[in-house]
Amino acid sequence: MPADERFAVRRESARASVPRPLTAAPAPAGVPLPPGLALRGRLATGARRPETPRGSGRGGSGSPTPRNGRGGGPRRAYERARRAWDRPLTAYYVILGSSLLITVLGLVMVYSASMIKALDISKPATYFFGKQFLAAVIGGGLMLIAARMPVKLHRGLAYPILMVTVFLMVLVQVPGIGMSVNGNQNWLYLGGPFQLQPSEFGKLALILWGADLLARKQDKRLLTQWKHMLVPLVPVAFMLLGLIMLGGDMGTAIILTAILFGLLWLAGAPTRLFAGVLGFAVVIGFVLIRTSPNRMSRLACMGVSEPDPEGGCWQAAHGIYALASGGWFGSGLGASVEKWGQLPEPHTDFIFAITGEELGLAGTLSVLALFAALGYAGIRVAGRTEDPFVRYAAGGVTTWITAQAVINIGAVLGLLPIAGVPLPLFSYGGSALLPTMFAVGLMIAFAREDPAAKAALAMRKPGVRWKTMRRRVKKRSSGER
């Protein structure tokens, strides 16, 4: 055999002896290949992995692609804030945090605003602060108790609280037992420096009793009839209003009327019925204001910028002076000028004016933001619940706190008449602080009763979390590290 032929035969035999790479057989139509076999097939056919451009990996100089196709910057921050606000425990933490911040800031401002007033009546500078601090401690205990109580127990307390409140409000009008403060016969003397205003507890009593009444009627489907919606809710509310007006406290009567309208609105009162009750209340209020020179003088002080030569509108004008002199960040804690006898009620009705003078616009806007957060969280609790009692009670408490805050701040700003109501959780006054803190505890309990919030709180318990982690850890063999 020639040499060329022998060389060709050897080359063919050598090629045949070299093992060829495995290639994937063509799969039938519609049947996917296993991942490993498909990869070997791609390597065998010479397919290459797409190259990654430089700078696009970790540590590269290129900009990474946003996750889930979302843009970065403000939009991502907005999405995170929205997801955080939609969490089950958001309302619980907002109610708890905002109420505690308002109460603590109120204690600081009561001490700062009442020092000169206490020294003027020959008392220690901490006289009013000590009483307010004691009321805040007792109120904190009431808030904790209310937050831990089940909803059924709150409903069970509705009638007892209403009966005790009505009894105390009747007792106020008995000569020799009731006390008159600033022309209002609405106080009971408890001994020593302590007094009690039962009308403040009337707000809480109307909310609990009205919420229980409307919830029971809704369960029986009776709220579609106007007589069941009005009776006995409106007569009992008018009875409380009459007892309050016997003492001359127009401000508390306005708040109680706002609570009544809030309950009717939540119950789905028709527009004609709602407008009729509102018109009747407006007529009664006009008559009461028109027949009282004191109330007419308060109405005339709306929007004034300086007091009358005869001394009228003194408090309203100096409240505006205090706010105007505060500037952006105020004159500092304790540096108020108006509390040195110029402003008659610096630690009660007009404490917001002293806050504006000492903390400035930043301080007043912070207080407004805290009240707005508390009100929005209350609306969220009332809107997300399936329990009618919780909806009515949470809506009533939210109406109470927000309406009273608006009336107080509006009077300080000169936009509303001076009604003589304190700023909730902020102004001096234990009789107003105790039922308000109990009502805040009521909303905390309602926020905890949400099913999603219950599950989230249960997951935060140490025992539950430890058991959950033990389930997630896989058992490993003795030789595995």
Care to describe what's here?
The chain contains 19 helices and 3 strands. A hairpin with a 2-residue loop joins strand 1 and strand 2 (184-191). With 481 residues, the protein is mostly helical. Strands 1-2-3 form a 3-stranded antiparallel sheet, covered by helices on one side. The protein starts with a helix and ends in a 9-residue tail after the last helix.
TL;DR?
With about 475 residues, the protein is mainly α. The protein has helices spanning about 5-15, 35-45, 75-85, 90-120, 125-150, 150-155, 160-170, 200-220, 225-230, 235-245, 250-265, 270-290, 295-300, 315-325, 350-385, 390-410, 430-450, 450-460, 460-470; strands spanning about 180, 185-190, 195.
Topology:
Layout: H1 3-17, H2 35-44, H3 74-85, H4 90-120, H5 127-148, H6 151-156, H7 158-172, E1 178-181, E2 184-191, E3 194-196, H8 198-219, H9 226-230, H10 233-246, H11 250-266, H12 271-290, H13 293-300, H14 314-326, H15 351-384, H16 388-412, H17 430-448, H18 451-459, H19 462-472
Antiparallel strand pairs: 1-2, 2-3
Helix pairs in contact: 4-5, 4-15, 4-17, 5-17, 7-8, 8-10, 8-11, 8-16, 8-17, 10-11, 11-12, 11-16, 14-15, 15-16, 16-17
